[in-house]
């Protein structure tokens, strides 16, 4: 695989290769000297046209741990402000010798458009989607998968561990690229995925939004359920993933009152009692504290995997850069 834009067509063997590679980098990251020479001489450019804390910094750290040279693009201080187009910006980075472009943009399709342009130019540049509009956020879903599988078996994280586990995703599904990528990965792993949220924040034409069995999808059967009420969705869940209300992507009529949202859909200790004992809670961040999840629960290591997700992000992004950068250890 030359570019990673979407998880829709990811094969089970590819998920396991990413998980196993991330596990070996996690071991490297636990050593005193955390740097390996794998991508020495390669250039990784972080082209983030939309704000980010976790994804941008963990891609940068991952690239540095692999000894690549890194370039960081900041739209506000770039020649984008003088009218340079996105494709011309990408071509400028290509001309500087970039090998891997990590792209985030508020419009769906931008990473694919840059990947197509790089292929048209017969460059060998790889493109990694770091979140495009409401479409996909593959590296986030992979780090979520790695976090969950590492809870189930810290030594050998693999997707088979998720067979018949119940994972409930709660919140603003409609605007969430994280939800969409997670639906692909979790259902490919054989998990039962339950989505719950206010009707205004669930996709209307669900079959169009995420086809149950996409024609070229390698997975023949995906277990996916939709709920307007959170309680049935939480019943006997093994993992709960709560999502940020993406207010920046909402038109006024979709915006729920935050207090009402927390009352109806917020993840609290009381609601977690509906889940299986040992349930763990994830959130991709950034969190609206006290809205999607109660503040004390967010900080409780007995339940919350939020910090572990951020830590996993570095190992997963090292794995992705290594695998598409063709690094040799
Ligand atoms: N989860 C995530 O994408 O966070 P950032 O926007 O901080 O990168």
TrEMBL record:
Protein name: Aspartate carbamoyltransferase
Domain Aspartate/ornithine carbamoyltransferase Asp/Orn-binding: 164-323
InterPro entries referenced in this protein's UniProt entry, alphabetically: Asp/Orn_carbamoyltranf_P-bd, Asp/Orn_carbamoylTrfase, Asp/Orn_carbamoylTrfase_sf, Asp_carbamoyltransf, Asp_carbamoyltransf_Asp/Orn-bd
Binding site for L-aspartate: 82, 177, 244
Record: residues binding carbamoyl phosphate: 54-55, 104, 137, 140, 285-286
Function: Catalyzes the condensation of carbamoyl phosphate and aspartate to form carbamoyl aspartate and inorganic phosphate, the committed step in the de novo pyrimidine nucleotide biosynthesis pathway.
Reactions performed catalytically: carbamoyl phosphate + L-aspartate = N-carbamoyl-L-aspartate + phosphate + H(+)
Record's keyword terms, sorted: Pyrimidine biosynthesis, Transferase
One Gene Ontology MF term: aspartate carbamoyltransferase activity
Matches recorded under NCBIfam families: asp_carb_tr, PRK00856.1
Top enzyme class: transferase
Gene: pyrB
């Amino acid at each position: 695989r030359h570019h990673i834009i979407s998880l829709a067509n990811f094969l089970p063997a590819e998920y396991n290769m990413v998980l196993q590679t991330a596990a070996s980098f996690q071991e490297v990251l636990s050593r005193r000297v955390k740097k390996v020479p794998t991508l020495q001489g390669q250039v990784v450019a972080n082209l983030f046209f939309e704000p980010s804390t976790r994804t941008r910094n963990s891609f940068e750290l991952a690239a540095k741990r692999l000894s690549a040279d890194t370039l960081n693009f900041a739209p506000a201080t770039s020649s984008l402000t003088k009218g340079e187009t996105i494709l011309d910006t990408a071509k400028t980075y290509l001309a500087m010798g970039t090998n891997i472009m990590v792209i985030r943009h508020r419009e769906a399709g931008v990473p694919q458009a840059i990947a197509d342009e790089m292929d048209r130019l017969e460059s060998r540049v790889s493109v990694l989607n770091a979140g495009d509009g409401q479409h996909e956020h593959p590296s986030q879903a992979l780090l979520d998968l790695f976090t969950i599988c590492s809870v189930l078996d810290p030594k050998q994280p693999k997707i088979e561990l998720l067979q018949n586990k119940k994972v409930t995703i709660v919140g603003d599904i409609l605007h969430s690229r994280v939800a969409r990528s997670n639906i692909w990965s979790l259902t490919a792993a054989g998990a039962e995925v339950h989505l719950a949220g206010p009707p205004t924040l669930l996709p209307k034409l669900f079959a169009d939004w995420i086809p149950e069995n996409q024609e070229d999808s390698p997975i023949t059967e995906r277990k996916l359920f939709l709920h307007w009420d959170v309680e049935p969705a939480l019943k006997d869940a093994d993992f709960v993933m709560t999502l940020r209300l993406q207010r920046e992507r909402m038109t006024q009529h979709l915006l729920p009152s935050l207090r009402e949202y927390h009352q109806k859909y917020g993840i609290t200790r009381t609601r977690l009692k509906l889940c299986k004992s040992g349930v763990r809670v994830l959130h991709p961040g950034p969190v609206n504290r006290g809205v999607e999840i109660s503040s004390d629960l967010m900080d409780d290591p007995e339940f919350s995997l939020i910090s572990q997700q951020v830590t996993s992000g570095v190992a997963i992004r090292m794995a992705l850069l290594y695998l598409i950068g063709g690094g040799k250890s």
